[in-house]
Write a structure and sequence with these properties.
With 361 residues, this protein is of the alpha+beta class. The protein is built from 9 helices and 12 strands. The protein has 4 domains: 44 residues; 100 residues, Beta-Lactamase; 107 residues, PAS domain (Beta-Lactamase, 2-Layer Sandwich); 52 residues, Beta-Lactamase, CATH 3.30.450.
Length: 361
């Protein structure tokens, strides 16, 4: 083979080699661009992402997880991990990061699918999803997605506590003899206890004479003035109240008294409690008492004015009334009566037993 031929062949080989190099460089540039896009996406992701190589050395932290570690650093240091440093996680073995990794290293090494776990360190609860990075069926690293669930779990616990407390309050109100209604900040009725429902059922026949559309079962989930227009022009004042107020109104001859009290949580108004009372029967009884008292007063006045001696005794024969004429008679005869009944006192006849006057009354 001539020297010229050898030189030509060598040039062809060099050209082919250069082509392969350029092709490899082009592929590497493509991979680098893809990796750059992936890194940019991870850097700006909301998820907390950490990547470790096959030897468990941390090689990547995105911005979200760095912020998470910065946030919990002092708490971890004070409670369980005094050497923890949020700025020195990169290039460290993840077994030195937290006890969980030291305990799970062998498990992580054998992963073929994602592993989801939750652990507690320094009173903070972390959820972790570990996924193997596989290249040609070989694990070359692990992606860890973190979530600090501490605040979330605390909020859930508080919600559970509030729900339990509300359930106890509802149970107490359901069994209460008081008639209770609860409205939200927009005065939508969100609760009526059994006693109030029963009160409305008793009054239903009378109320529908004035409000044919009244429906006990439709009070809840409607505004408080849907059926009770008495409140319509008072809602603004009620919303501004800081103390309990009492109001009274009449519907179809039935008199209702309502005490309205604001409900505040952490200084913020969240609704109102309305304590109802149907005073119709009570007022009727009071009116009847007044009528009887007035009638008795007239009878007493008449008896006090007559000249005859009048005494009234109850069913047990105890004196409950003596008119002026009888009192005068008893006072004049007091000494004679005391000779037979030593404890007799003409000035204290009320309550004295008539039986004392007679052996056989």
């Amino acid at each position: 083979m001539s020297e010229l031929h050898k030189a030509f062949k060598s040039m062809l080989a060099m050209r082919q080699s250069l082509g392969l190099i350029r092709e490899k460089e082009a592929q590497e540039r493509i991979i680098a661009r893809v990796n750059a896009r992936i890194k940019s996406a991870l850097d700006n992701a909301n998820s907390n992402v950490m990547i470790a190589d096959k030897d468990h050395k941390v090689i990547y932290l995105n911005d979200a997880i760095q912020q998470m570690f910065n946030h919990v650093e002092s708490e971890l240091q004070q409670n369980e991990l005094p050497t923890f440093n949020a700025n020195h996680i990169l290039d460290t073995h993840n077994a030195s990061l937290m006890p969980y990794f030291e305990q799970q290293l062998s498990h992580i090494e054998s992963l073929t699918t994602s592993l989801e776990a939750q652990f507690v360190v320094a009173a903070r609860t972390f959820k972790l999803v570990a996924s193997p990075i596989m290249v040609e069926a070989q694990r070359v690293g692990t992606v860890f997605e973190w979530q600090d669930r501490t605040d979330e779990l605390a909020a859930e616990k508080e919600k559970t506590r509030i729900a339990s407390e509300n359930a106890r309050v509802k149970y107490a109100l359901d069994g209460s003899s008081g008639q209770v209604m609860i409205a939200d900040t927009d005065f939508n009725v969100i609760y009526l206890n059994d006693s109030l429902v029963e009160m409305f059922k008793v009054a239903h026949k009378d109320i529908t004479q004035e409000m044919p559309h009244f429906n006990v079962n439709a009070i809840e989930n409607n505004k408080v003035d849907t059926f009770f227009s008495h409140f319509s022009d008072k809602l603004a004042d009620i919303a501004a109240q800081t103390n309990s107020i009492e109001t009274e109104f009449v519907i179809a001859g039935r008199t209702f008294t309502v005490i309205i009290s604001p409900v505040n949580v952490d200084g913020e108004r969240v609704g109102a409690v309305l304590e109802w009372q149907d005073r119709t029967d009570w007022l009727e009884q009071e009116r009847e008492k007044i009528r009887i008292a007035a009638e008795n007063a007239r009878v007493r006045y008449a008896l006090d004015s007559v000249s005859g001696n009048v005494m009234i005794a109850d069913k047990n024969l105890n004196i409950i009334y003596a008119n002026q004429a009888l009192k005068a008679t008893m006072q004049s005869a007091e000494n004679d009566i005391q000779a037979h009944i030593g404890q007799f006192d003409a000035h204290n006849l009320i309550g004295f037993s008539v039986e004392q006057f007679y052996l056989e009354p």
